[in-house]
Amino acid sequence: MKTHPEFEYPMHGFHPCSGCGNMAPHHSQVNYPDNGWSIPIDHLGYYGGFTDTNKADDSYTINLCHDCVLKFLETFPMIGLLIGKGGHSQIGPDEKPCCPWAWKLDKIENAYITYLASEDGQQWLAQ
Ligand SMILES: [Zn+2]
Q1: CA of 31 to the centre of ligand 1 (A)
Q2: Residues pairing with 104 in the sheet
Q3: Are residues 17 and 77 in the same domain?
Q4: Ligand 1 mean position to 110 CA, how many Å?
Q5: What is the 40 CA–ligand 1 centroid distance (Å)?
Q6: How much distance in Å is there from the Cα of 54 to the middle of ligand 1?
Q7: Is the pLDDT assigned to residue 121 strictly greater than 80?
Q8: Which of 34, 45, 106, 107 has the fewest Cβ atoms within 10 Å of its own Cβ atom?
Q9: pLDDT above 90 covers what percent of the chain?
Q10: Are residues 66 and 77 located together in one domain of the fold?
Q11: How confident is the model at residue 55 (pLDDT cuts 50, 70, 90)?
């Protein structure tokens, strides 16, 4: 595999987003951005389809931060529908979801409640 220094990241909890270049955290899983996307570029296409999958020695992974995934899904809303609701967990007592694909688990006394973000991503809806 050929290395691409611009896409390599330090093993200290952050790596550069391939979309915007900002440092994206990866605390929950070392090789993946938190609540983002990690896509082997070979999986994006086919021979003649923008990415030439015959270049096995030139493969690398695209990592996108949460905000860049949102930009993508807002640009291509049909893909957002294919992904469906509850695509990533939001940890913490946040009053509002971070986006329409968020879910969270809450505990009230001895009961656990799962919440999904509303269609517009502005409020939590108990399931
Ligand atoms: Zn980004």
Answers
A1: 16
A2: 115
A3: yes
A4: 38
A5: 16
A6: 28
A7: yes
A8: 107
A9: 43
A10: yes
A11: low
What phi and psi values does residue 110 have, to the nearest 5 degrees?
-105, 10
Q: Please count the structural domains in the chain.
A: 2
Report CA(52)–ligand 1 centroid distance (Å).
Answer: 24
Q: Report angle CA 29, 31, 32 to the nearest 5 degrees.
A: 65
Complete DSSP assignment for 24-83: EE--SBTTB-TTSEEEEGGGG--TTBSB-TT-GGG--EEEE-HHHHHHHHHHSHHHHHHH
Q: What is the pTM of this model?
A: 0.77
Same domain? For 7 and 67 the reply is yes
- Percent share of the chain, pLDDT over 70: 83
Is residue 58 located within the same domain as residue 108? no
Domain membership of residue 99 as a residue range: 84-127
Same domain membership, residue 91 and residue 77: no
Distance 23 CA to ligand 1 centre (A): 8
Q: For the chain, what is the mean pLDDT?
A: 82
> pLDDT at residue 2 above 50?
no
